[in-house]
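Section 5: illustrative case.
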């Protein structure tokens, strides 16, 4: 599958020190070894315009945040469990001044050792994409994505659990303020 949503760059999509990326995802196929499948990203391959992304690396959820737009000065973390089934899952990545976490189905599942460094988020010109890393061939998410939400702060664990429970109950969590 190579369908994705493209959202023009805007100041509200360029937070400087904190962000939460949140979505419900359902895989439709197996992810190849060594492969990335992106849910939400502001990323232009080979252009030093990498801001952030949330997606699969193999069967684990990965969140990456770049401090300078490159892959050199970045911080990323993977979930300590994988998703190998084809059910709906609530996935969340948070970044707050260098503290980076992942949640699956309301539970914190961050690997104990984040990789790299960085305490801020690069503000570049990449468009936001849902379901791919821009137009980069090979980085499309093979599945369904629903209720995407992006916050300019790191949600706390109780908020994330509430969002998961509301989603399971069919109430949703995307509230326009």
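Designed sequence:
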């Amino acid at each position: 599958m190579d369908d994705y949503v493209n959202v023009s760059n805007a100041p509200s999509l360029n937070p400087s020190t904190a962000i939460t990326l949140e979505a419900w995802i359902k895989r439709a196929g197996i992810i190849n070894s060594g492969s990335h499948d992106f849910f939400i990203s502001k990323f232009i391959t080979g252009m030093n315009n990498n801001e952030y992304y949330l997606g699969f690396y193999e069967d684990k959820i990965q969140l990456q945040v770049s401090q300078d737009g490159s892959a050199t000065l970045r911080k990323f973390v993977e979930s300590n469990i994988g998703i190998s089934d084809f059910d709906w899952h609530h996935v969340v990545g948070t970044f707050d001044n260098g503290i980076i976490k992942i949640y699956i189905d309301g539970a914190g599942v961050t690997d104990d050792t984040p990789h790299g460094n960085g305490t801020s988020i690069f503000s570049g010109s990449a468009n936001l994409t849902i379901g791919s890393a821009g137009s980069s061939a090979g980085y499309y998410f093979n599945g369904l994505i629903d209720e995407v939400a992006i916050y300019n702060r790191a949600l706390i664990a109780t908020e994330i659990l509430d969002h998961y429970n509301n989603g399971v109950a069919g109430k949703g969590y995307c509230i326009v303020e």
